[in-house]
Structures are given as C-alpha cells and as structure tokens.
Amino acid sequence: DLDNEAFTRGVQQPQEAYLYFPITNEIKIGEGKSAVRRIFDGQVTFDAFEIKILREFKEYCTKLKVQFDSYWRDCVLLRFLQANHFKFEKTLNTVREHSKWRVLKLPPKMTNDISNFLNSGIVYIQGRDHRFRPIIVLNPYKLDLKQMNAEIMIDSMTFLLELSLIHI
Question: Are 156 and 117 in contact (CB under 8 A)?
C-alpha cells in the first residue's frame, strides 16, 4: 500500500517547497465562468463567483437530498464544477461516478503486477520542477499494448498518482 516505506523513501517534498507561494496568474486566470483555476487547494481564496457557484451547487444537491462525505471539500467540488463547465447536473453525475470509483479503487494496493509495471520504466517520478511539482515521465514507446493489461496500467497509474498526492 502507499505506506510502504521502502517505496516512498526519498520522495518526500523538500523543506524549501513549503516556502514557495504561487503568484496570482499561476493560481487562476480570468473571471467568472471563463476563468481557469489551476490551484484549488492550499492557501487560496475563492472569488465571489466561485463562492456563489459553490453555494448554488450545494443548494441544488440539497434539494435532491444528496450528501457528501468529507472528501468533497469546497476545493474539490469547485474543481469538478470547473471541469463540467459549471453545469450542475453534469457535475453531480461526475461526482457520483468519481465517488463510486474511489470506493472501488482507493486506497490502491501494491501488487506484483503494479510493481512490475512501475519497475518497467514506462512511467516514473523524476525529481521536481522549479515550482517543486513532481515530474512524472511517461515512456509510451516501452508500452506493449498487446501484452499489457489495461486494468494493470490504470491501477499502476492510480498508485503512482496517489503516491505523488499523498507522499510527494
């Protein structure tokens, strides 16, 4: 699992990363529905439109008797709203599908198949960029689609991405 110390050793975020604060246009560009927010979580403040759309979406969900677990913080809901162009019905469907996927797939478990995939060099984490984000390298030329199981690929990528979210 993701607490496997041998797998996660050496991938923790360096201390200086905690001193990096993105500038405004790295966080969000534009206004209203046409805005593109890149950073949803951390020390960010939502603007009036975002606060309003979150409130309206929650009211919409309340009318439909939809309840959210603790995963669905405002920053996550806003990310899903933006991805669905602020269309409430579409966003709610995406939230439901994502919730089902989370129950089935998280937390990911390290298996021999996942270990073999991650050790193949098809995908790996290679340091950090100048903003301390992990650099994930993908070598598709190493991928043999005739021999590789799609479920193993998805599970391996899920493991790697969850590792980067939790430990990096």
Answer: yes
What is d(CA 161, CA 168) in angstroms, rounded to the nearest whole number?
10
Contact 134, 128 (CB under 8 A): yes
DSSP string for residues in 77-91? HHHHHHHTTT-HHHH
Q: Identify residue 27 by its one-letter amino acid code.
A: I
What tens digit of pLDDT does each residue of 78-129 get? 999 999 999 999 999 999 999 999 999 998 889 999 999 999 999 998 888 8
Cα–Cα dist 32/53, whole Å:
10
Place of tokens 């677990």: 69
Coil, strand or helix at 65: coil
Q: C-alpha distances in angstroms, 162 versus 34, 87, 102? A: 29, 27, 11
Residue 136, helix vs strand vs coil: strand
Q: Locate tokens 């201390």: which residue?
A: 15
Alpha-carbon distance of 59 to 16, in angstroms, equals 41
Q: What is the C-alpha separation between 168 and 11, in angstroms, rounded?
A: 6
Tokens representing 9 are 């050793």
